[in-house]
Design goal:
Elements (H helix, E strand, L loop, with lengths): L15 H53 L5 H11 L3 E4 L6 E2 L5 H14 L5 E5 L2 E10 L2 E7 L7 H43 L13 H49 L3 H26 L7 E3 L1 H14 L4 E5 L5 E3 L1 H18 L4 E8 L2 E8 L9 H4 L19 H11 L3 E6 L5 E8 L3
Parallel strand pairs: 7-9
Antiparallel strand pairs: 1-5, 2-3, 3-4, 4-5, 6-8, 9-10, 10-12, 11-12
Helix pairs in contact: 1-3, 1-4, 4-5, 5-6, 7-8, 8-10
Length: about 450
């Protein structure tokens, strides 16, 4: 039993698209953070000087207004300052609860500059008796007062807006990077898929010759290579068909001459078997040359085709068990599909010898044909290679002759019907040749 190894989690993506995108995203993000730090560091001193000038101006104006105002109108003056400017003035009292201002570079430098201008006795607080704000003390004669400046007069909204615009610029940069990288990786992905299709013996659609000049040149060369390979394959099939037709006539003469020669029966039977083997190989050549076209699609029943093939082998004394369910009709090239079933059953009889069975049933959205035998089987690593023309397995399943075209014919016909062809190990030993054809056609 084959143990399936769990896929290891990879923190680094494998695709070119995401690798390049992550690198570009990291570069854009690092650049944005760098510019933000530069802006913040160079902004500290100018902001601190501006803030200190505002605080000194507020304290000086407030002190001057209180000194020059009439005592009976001071309460009215303080109320007007609070309403219009948001500035509140309180008398310092013993036992008041004070909290230190926030520890920020801009605020620390601003308080230092304010002390230089107002005096070292100037005190600061970030909260007084539960009221937040920036509190600055000053003296009129021997009396100490507090000026409360609201946080809105201190906080700089421009920095917050700058962060918003920076986030927008970062998002747009990442989107542009993704679009750029995806335009480069899409043609490469199409080339990889097309190359994989050629590796499986298929003829892929031409890839788009678009993008940068290097990618256009690569796509153009790949399309030319694909066309050359397809032409070589067609030429090879044509040569096979011509040679096979030319060999048919001398083989027929040999068979007729052998029957009329009166040779020893044992010798005659051996030579007849050799001629039949040569005729079977020639038939495979012709089938291989015909698999790519020439027959129109028509509605047919795969179970009926399988039953006819099984009956054909029974008439020749071969034991073929069947398990044929009622399945919907499919658009098929009936003669090509009959050759497929013949090839699979013939392989099973040649290599499995006994317990050969044919089954047809519907499964989800496909019709499945299974041809099973009890032969030596095929290693999973050799399955795809054996679907290629003129390839044989160097073990017991290849010691019965043949040209190595049977599975290639099956693969071509099934692919032309947009189906799937699998060679699977059978429980208890042997091989299952499985064909899945879509019901929708």
């Amino acid at each position: 039993m084959t143990r399936i190894r769990p896929r290891r989690w990879r923190p680094w993506p494998r695709s070119l698209l995401w690798r390049t995108f992550i690198l570009l995203a990291a570069l854009v993000l690092a650049t944005t953070v760098g510019w933000f730090e530069i802006f913040r560091n160079y902004e500290v001193e100018p902001r601190a000087r501006q803030l200190s000038q505002n605080l000194v101006s507020i304290v000086n104006i407030t002190r001057t207004a209180l000194i020059n105002s009439q005592p009976e109108r001071r309460r009215e003056l303080l109320a007007e300052l609070a309403d219009r400017e948001g500035i509140q003035v309180y008398t310092a009292e013993p036992g008041e609860r004070l909290a230190a201002p926030a520890d920020r570079p801009v605020l620390n430098l601003a308080t230092e500059l304010v002390r230089r201008q107002l005096g070292e006795s100037t005190r600061f607080a970030g909260e007084r008796d539960g009221k937040p704000g920036l509190w600055v003390s000053f003296f009129i004669a021997d009396d100490e007062y507090w000026v409360r400046v609201p946080s809105t007069r201190i906080e700089r909204q421009i920095a917050l807006r700058w962060l918003g615009w920076g986030a927008l610029a970062l998002t747009l940069s990442l989107l542009a990077a993704y679009m750029l990288v995806s335009r480069l990786s899409r043609p490469l992905r199409a080339l990889a898929l097309a190359a994989g299709a050629i590796g499986k013996g298929k003829v892929p659609d031409p890839v788009s010759e678009s993008g940068p000049e290097e990618l256009r040149t690569l796509s153009r060369a790949f399309n030319q290579m694909s066309r050359d390979l397809a032409r070589l394959d067609a030429d090879r099939a044509l040569i096979l068909a011509g040679v096979s037709h030319d060999l048919r006539t001398p083989l027929s003469r040999l068979r007729l001459g052998l029957e009329m020669s009166g040779a020893d029966p044992q010798l005659r039977d051996g030579m007849t078997a050799d001629i039949e083997e040569m005729d079977r190989i020639i038939n495979q050549f012709l089938d291989f040359a015909r698999t790519d076209g020439g027959e129109a699609m028509q509605r047919a029943d795969l179970a009926t085709i399988a039953a006819d093939v099984a009956e054909h082998y029974r008439r020749h004394g071969k034991s073929v068990a069947t398990d044929l369910a009622v399945v919907p009709g499919l658009p098929l090239q009936a003669m090509s599909m009959r050759r497929v079933v013949l090839n699979l059953v013939d392989n099973a009889l040649r290599y499995g010898e006994k317990e050969v069975s044919v089954a047809v049933h519907a499964e989800d959205s496909v019709v499945v044909l299974d041809v099973a035998d009890r032969g030596p089987g095929i290693p999973p690593s050799e399955v795809e290679r054996l679907k290629q023309p003129f390839t044989r397995l160097q073990i017991a399943r290849s010691d019965k002759g043949g040209a190595g075209l049977g599975l290639a014919i099956v693969e071509r016909v099934v692919r032309a019907h947009r189906g799937a062809f699998e060679l699977l190990p059978r429980d208890g030993g042997g091989l299952i040749a499985k064909i899945s054809l879509p019901i929708g056609g």
